[in-house]
Write a structure and sequence with these properties.
With about 325 residues, this protein is an all-alpha fold. The chain contains 13 helices and two strands, in the order ααααααββααααααα. The protein folds into two domains: about 35 residues; about 280 residues, no CATH class.
Length: about 325
Amino acid sequence: MAVQRRMRSTEETNGDDDGGNAREPLIADEVRKPQRIPQPQAIATIVIALITYFTYPGPLNPTGKPTVLHVWYFGWISALSTGLGVVPLIFTQELDRYWIGASNALAAGMMIAASYSLILEGCTFKEPDDMSEISSQIRTLIGVVLGLGFIIATKSFLDQHEDVRVGALAGADARRIILIIFVMTLHSFSEGVGIGVSFGGSNGSELGVFISASLAVHNVPEGLAVAIALLPRNVSSLTAALWCVMTSLPQPLMAVPAFLFCHYFIPILPVGLGFAGGAMAWVALFELLWEGIKDTNTLTATILSTMSLATMIALQGMMDDRS
């Protein structure tokens, strides 16, 4: 209440001079005052460290047929790598609306590239154990339609709840963050299935390690896309990193059952890839890119998103060539 009274009195004093825009820097100042790590974030960090230590398979590289613990651990490391996306933004403490818009445009380009890669992978999906009579292209298209419908319904639900909160964020900002985190988490399900299936083949030990390592590298810019959406809104670096890791938790959780029952998971993998790709494309175009255009201008947002899109596709192409 004291904070609210200080903010109100300051606005009443300065509102006529600055058009009522004094609220944003005051909120930023109040949010940044606490220095110690909040208890939930500290507990989450400790839990992550304990899981990383106690589930280590030893030796890390499987000899012969990989075990369930190997599959879990490689999926777990892949998920943790998403948190590294925060690193490039650690030293950026304050951004005005223009730079928030630029960040959203960059994140939109990254997510469009990821969506393209997921849909392309689904359309070109070929596995010896895939016994489905429906082509991979049709299954991927079904997934895209389901993903678009699902994310539109989710956004409609969130828009009806204006009081939703994410930590210190509320209203439209909170709904947008929930949508972004939700979509990034959804697409991790298909990646987790991909990890599990890759360990299940005749060359599972080598292929599974390679696929997991590739996804770990791929997860870093995905984490950056989440961090770009969070950090300019006064979310701490540690909290943003934990949210990034959370979006990839389905990878180890889905890798284990996919490894144990890979014959059942293979036919539905193109649907999952299309589902994630369609949902991600919607959020990238109609949430992040639109916000980037509003906070900067159409030309700037288009150039930035195109640059990040081209960079991500080029990196993906380099990884595919090496594989």
